[in-house]
Structure formats: C-alpha cells, structure tokens
Amino acid sequence: MQALDPRGVTTAEEFVVLLRRVRDRSGLSYRTIAKRAELAGAVLPASTLATMLARQTLPRRELVTAVLTACEVPPAAVRQWIAVWERLAEGTKPATVEDPEPVERPFQLPPAPPVLVGRDDELDRLAEGLAQPPGVWLLTGAGGVGKSALAVLAAHRAAGRHPGGCLYVDLRGASADAAPSEPHDVLLGFLRALGVRTAPATVDEASALFRSTTADRAMLVVLDNAGSAAQVRPLLPSGPRSTTLVTSRWRLPDLDVTRRLAVEPLPAPAGRELLAHLCGPERVAAEAAAAGDIVRLCGGSPLALRIVGARAAGRQAPGILGALAAHLGDHARHLDELEVGDLSVRAGLRVGYRSLQADIAASVFRLAAVPEWIELGAAACAAMLDTPPVAVERALDLLVDAHLVECPAPGRFRYHDSVRIFAREQAEAVDPPAVRLAVRERLAAVMFSAAASAARSLFPHDPLPYAELGGTAQRLIAPDATTAQAWQWLEQERVNLRMLAGQEFAAGRALPAIRDLGVAVAKYLDYAGHFVDQARLGQLAIAAARRLGDQRGTAQALNTLAIAMLRHERRREGIELLDQALAIRRELGDRAGEAACLNNLGNAHRDNGDLDAALRCLERSLALRKELSDQYKTGSTLDNIGIVLRRMGRFEEALDHHRAGLAITRELDDRLREALVLTNLAETEQLAGQRREALGHAERALAISRELRHDRGCGLALQLLGDIYTSLGQSARARACQDEAAELLHEPAIGAPTPIAG
C-alpha cells in the first residue's frame, strides 16, 4: 500500500485528517496504539488519542511522533511529517497547538474482538450512522448471534469521532447467572468515570445529572445486553454530539431509537470462514462436507460455531469434524454438544424462555414445537393449541420479540433447530404426555382436513378420497377458496403435510388419513412438480394402506408412487408399480381404477419409447372411461393419446385428440388442466408447422398459469415459447423465455411432456 505523503498539506485541519487516515489504514485500535506508544517511552492515553484525532487544530509534536511510530510509519516518513508539522506550527499562533482539556475522558470499551467475519455490511452501516450524532442505534438479534462483538468493534472504530469519551456497560439483561443491572447503579458508575463526585439519591436525579454532564461532550455510550426499554431510557445522553449504541436480544418496540439493525445469523460462507479460523483452515478443507453440515446445524450462530470450533481445536484426531457433525444431527445430543467451558447455547435459550412472563407465551413456545413442521401460520398454531387465535397471535409476537421464533413472512413462524430442541425439552419437563399427544393430533387433523378442502377446490371433478381427511372442522382455508388461493395454501403447507404424516405414521396413528392424504394431494404435487414430496407421501400411503389391510387403498397409493417414479425418469420402477396396481384393480373389479392405471401405463410406455404399447393402454383406458360416462377423465386420456400420436408423426390425428380434450376441459371449467392441455396442443402445432397457432395457445397457457400462480405450468409454457420464438427467428425473446423457464423448472422432469395422470 502506498504511504500517505503529508507534504501537500497546507492547514492544521488537513494535517489531522491525513493523520487520522494513517490510523484508519493501520487497523489498530486506540488502546493498541496507546500500548505501543507506552512501550516506546511515550505517554499517549487512548482517550487523548481519540480527542486529538477528532479536532481540527494542530496536535503536539511528540503526540504526532508517537502515533506515527505506533502505526509503523518508517522513520524517514516520520521526519517528513514532523517537517510539515514545524512548517504549520510556525504559521500558527501558539495557542492553537492545544493540550487536551483538563477533563475526564473515559474509555471503557472492552477489547475489540480479534476476528469478526461476515459483518462488513453491518459495520459499514454503523460507521456511517455513528459518524452523524446524535442518535440511538439498537442492535437486536438472537442470543449468540454476535451483537455485542459487532457493537464493540463498531464503537472502537468510531471512538475517534467522540473525543468526549466512550462509556460502556453490560446491562446483563440476558444473563443466566446474574440479575439485570439497575439503572441507578449504572448512572453512578458513569458519573464517577466522568469526574463527577456527587452521588444523586434517585435514578431520576442521577439521569438528569448525567445528561447535564454530557450535554456539551461528544460521547459514545454503549449499552450492551439491554433487558428492557425501561432499563435503557435513564441511561441515554441527550446532548447534540452524543451517540448511543444499544444491543438486546429483545426487539424493544417501546424504545424510541434513531435506527434499528437486525443482526442475523451468518450466511454459510461466513460460517465456514469462522469455523476455519477457530479450528484451522486445513481441517475444514479436509472435511469440507462435515464442515458444511456443522455450519448448517449451528444455523449460522457465531456462539454455536465458537463452541464447536473450540471442541474441534482441542481434538486433533482425523475425522473429528465428521463426528461432531453427527452428534449435532442427533437431537438427543444436539444441545449437549453446544456447551464448552462457560459457553452454552442451552443456557442462553433458558434466559429467553424465562423472560416469558405471560403463561400463554411460554405454553405456545413449548407445545408448538411438539408436532413436526417447518413453517406454520398463526391460525394453525391456534388450532393445535385449541386457544383463541388472538391470544396465540399475541404470544407469537412476544416470541418473535424475544428471538425465540422467527417470522420469515407476515403471519408465518418457524423455529431454529436448536430452539425447537430446547422447546421440546421444556415441554417434556412441564406438559403431561396426554397434552403433548393432543397437540399433535389436533394439528394433524386440522391440516389434513384443510388439504382435502384445498384439493376439492383445485380438482372439483376428481372423486378423490376425502372421507378420512375431512372429519375435522378446519379453519385454515375458506370452503369457497378460489383455485389460486387453494394452490397457494398447498404451496405453503406441502412440506408440513409430509412431516406431520411421517410423524403420525411413525407413532402408528391416523393411518386412514395418511393413506388418503397421499392420494388427495398427489395431483397437486404432480402438477406443481414437487416429485420428491409426491414420492414420500406415496410411500407413506402404501405403508398405511397395507398396515390397514386395504387393497383398494394400496392400489391407489401404488398409482401415486408410480407417477412420482415416472417423473424422476425411473420408468422401470414406475411400470412395475403400475402393473401391481392394475392387478389389484382387476382383482377387485374396479373398472374406474383400472382405467386410471391404464392411462398412467400408457404415459409410462410412451416415455419409455414403446409407442405401440402406449397407444394400446391409452385406447383401452379411453374405452373404459367412455363406458363409465366419466367425461372428466375422458378429456385427460384424449390429450394423452394426442401426445403419443404426435410422437408417431400423426399430427392431424394428434391435433384432433388435443382439441377434443380441450373442449371437455373448457366445458367443465377446469382451468389448471386447460393450461396444460393448451401447452400440449401448442407443442403439437409447433411440430406440425403451425407456429402462429402454437404461439397463441402457448401464450394463453402461460397467462392462465400465471393467474393461478402455477410455477411449473408457467415453466413448461415458457419453455415451449422459447422454442417457438427460436423457430420464428426472434432470438432475444426466445432467450428470455428460456432463462425464466430454467428458473421455474428445477425438478428432474424438465423437458418432459405433460401427460395428465390418473
């Protein structure tokens, strides 16, 4: 880095600005510079240095020399600086070469953290804000996220702009083993540090004296670990040159502040960097996968990563990161692994939990963690707790304020893994088993019932199995929900449905509902492209049906899983499952079920390249559905036959079948299916050379899919539009469509035609 050259400086103010840049470039704290100066035989207190660099007048010569030497400026360059100082001093009245004012300038900041990764953006925002007093900055975040380290480092960097001094106190508002600091005691300590020898008897008197004492000073006050707004208010200076930095694990909505800064967990790259610093980059590189698991399981918490890093640093055996990752992944050991010395994630969570003065908030915190879910709405929480929604919403707000649950979107809530494990520990200690069981049963029942209601809204013509799902009055989706609303609800809750079904199946409960759930939501999952969830729910449905000894249910569930296998291009497995389902349907004399299996077998054989077998299966399915007067299913089979005929090059016949299927779909007002049939029709038209017709139908399919928020439908239509625009020579529009399609089609079945299952 090129040295700073002072020879062009013409004023004392420019001299100090350049000297401050020397210090900034060095990256040294004021305390470090003071210690280096002391070792060199110079007297340069940190408070004096802060005052000197904040002024616009020429400092004393020996202080300039001490700063430059401590910042490792070469001797020849120091001589240049002193020559410039002498030139400026000769043209300046002696009175302007000032000594520090004879007043107390405390510097109470703890040492700056030696390493702080992943916080550059926050430090930049704080540096900008702290350079413009007055103001009150509030840093909030979960316990262990690094608020204090961030505040202390930012304060060290801003100290030079606050020559009145730096005050610091740990208010112990989040301490597991000590009572919160009393504002009166804190104020008396501040006043003593400022040279005030009187001791006001009350907090109001002490607060008033503190404000008077600091009124003309440029002070920086750091109030760390605040427990409440009431604890903070008496400690705020009110002078026009002072700034206050407050940290708290609570959001303190009743505290008036200039700016709030939410300190979030570290992103994965920063978490890996911190882990590498703690236990060695070579170890992290050697066990890269395990290191990634540790960062994920720690949720980006610097405290948790510090603990794991300390445990790893003390053990040099190869493979230790893998062992630690495995232990963290075991819920029974997770929190035990996050303790070392006086550092403990569990202890920090206990502080937040004990702060919940309202019984309802503590109860919600414990019991809402008992069922399996990833992200849930307030209405579902109220249903599972059998508690009025208003009370539950208020409790959730308190939990969010305490950073015990997260609010990723309005009305949606989630736990961090460590917090969920802690909450379950508290539930097991406090709530009887019958209460915990009732919570799980209520949530599963109300969610399964809502899923049935949503599926009815999406597919009103499908005779899906709802009997075991709709027995509970559900409050989560309106009975007359639109297609878009039903789709959105299932998009939000599909992972929760799978997790709840898995939890209930493992406990041997709700088997009929689990059997029917896999079938009821299968078509939605297929249309949406969520093939992993489709497969897992299909597997659960098969297992539940077999445990119940239900042959018909087994056949339905085999069909669900088979479609998921086909979407994953595991065609041989899909065909085997469909053959099993077909045999059961025929044994039971279930002609509608037989037609459904034949429809899906036709699609499977087509994708496997056996077009003749595909056409035979689909034509047999079509005949059965016409005999049964099943107009809805007839429309889907007609469209699927059109895809096979297209593959055979029989375009006119294919178009006739697509159009016949489209007419039925429109007659029944099934807009989801209409969009898919339009896409299939447009693809056949494109291959038949009817590009303008294909363009119109593909654009109509895209418009319907966008209206219904059907991402996969949008992706398929956009993919086809890209091909059509390419053939029309419109490369820019083609590229835009293809890029957007690539973002939407992220499942294994990208590029596959869209046969209609069932």
TrEMBL record:
Any Pfam family hit: TPR_8
Ranges where the record places region Disordered: 93-114
Alphabetical list of InterPro entries matching this protein: AAA+_ATPase (IPR003593), P-loop_NTPase (IPR027417), TPR-like_helical_dom_sf (IPR011990), TPR_rpt (IPR019734)
Residues in coiled coil: none
TPR repeats: 595-628
PANTHER family: HTH-TYPE TRANSCRIPTIONAL REGULATOR RV0890C-RELATED, REGULATOR-RELATED
Protein name: Tetratricopeptide (TPR) repeat protein
Species of provenance: Asanoa ferruginea
